[in-house]
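User: Is it possible to get a 3D structure for a protein together with its bound compound? The compound here is alpha-D-galactopyranose. I've pasted both below.
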Amino acid sequence: MKKAVLLLFALSMSNFGYSQGNTHTQKAGKFEGLAMTPPMGWNSWNTFETNIDEKLVKETADIMVSSGMAAAGYNYIVLDDGWMTRERDANGDLVPDPVKFPNGMKAVIDYVHSKGLKFGLYNCAGTQTCAGYPGTRGYEYQDARFYVKLGIDFLKYDWCNTQGITAKEAYTTMSNALKTAGKPIVFSLCEWGNNQPWEWGKPVGNLWRISGDIYPCFDCEFKHEEGNWSSWGFMKIIEMRKDIRKYSGPDHWNDFDMMEVGDGMTNIEDKAHFTMWSMMASPLIAGNDFRKMSKETLAILTNKELIAVDQDKLGVQGFKYSAEEGLEVWVKPLSDGNWAITFLNRSDVAKKINFDWKKHTIKDADFGYEANFNKTIFKLKDLWQNKEIGNTKKNFVSDIAPHDVITLRLIP
Ligand code: GLA
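Assistant: Yes, that's possible. Here is the predicted structure of the complex:
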């Protein structure tokens, strides 16, 4: 009898959250369904680092709309590191830098929203951000309420200065804090793949970085003089992780980092970079200066056919099918039995492609999709030329320049 009374008491207390007198229920788990296709937008870091301000945000938002980027699907404007002052205020709140944002952050966010776009901010799970601004450690619930008051839609959450804490716990705490604060906010995990976020991140966030920072080159490693770390050319990031594509999908994406399209590579390399991000179903977050964007860069970033590959509702990350003497073939299953296939010339010399479909059966070992060209004939559409080019009855024959790509959509 005594046992039954105790059990009843324990059960009734569990309705009150965690301790006696706590009548406010803490919520857990990310906001579901905020990123059913990979998020698209712009982030300030790759070009501007901490040199950001109100004018930059407004001009970027204006161009996002006037250039056609918004119509192509880019809708998040994310301010990365450097938006705060060096200290919290007397109440422990974060303070948007009053010199960079003289009218306050709310005015900036309202402006971005008035353009029909969404807005994101950055912070860090550690005591300080990577650039030395106040981190969120110990302030998770307070910062979450601060973001909700501002009205942000996206939070990128970084991993500097995190000695002594574990990633899964720290990201779960922030995720729960956002959920409890109550406004749906896309939660972008940025711990560089150090702690296998693909294994535990799905209930926690909507996307997670899988690598250290990107660098605007095809395949280089850029060693930073200070500290013991490197940034990576885009093909290095593409190849960095093995066997993690099965963890990526709608609302829980492997994030290959903000793009470097328009940041100094050749147009051919930019095209290859954008193609590979689309083949990987990566978030497409531009990182260039829109105010100086060339026609060619804009055309690459707004290629509707490639964006459709990235945003395909099946949400399956592509994979390398074959590689022979620097000529690689990458494939991505798409909805309605379609496939995207990319020929990538990884080498520094021009190559010839002669692809006899009948000799290939493409099998996706992780998701079970298969393209058998002896059973099914596919129509072919060249996604960079935007034209139909026949079908898989005949060999696909083409020249391909160094570092260039040819991407076809296969339609059964
Ligand atoms: C880390 C992140 C970058 C950027 C900087 C900001 O390096 O990986 O994407 O956010 O911090 O300091």
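Residues 327 and 373 are 21 Å apart (CA to CA). The longest helix spans residues 167-181.
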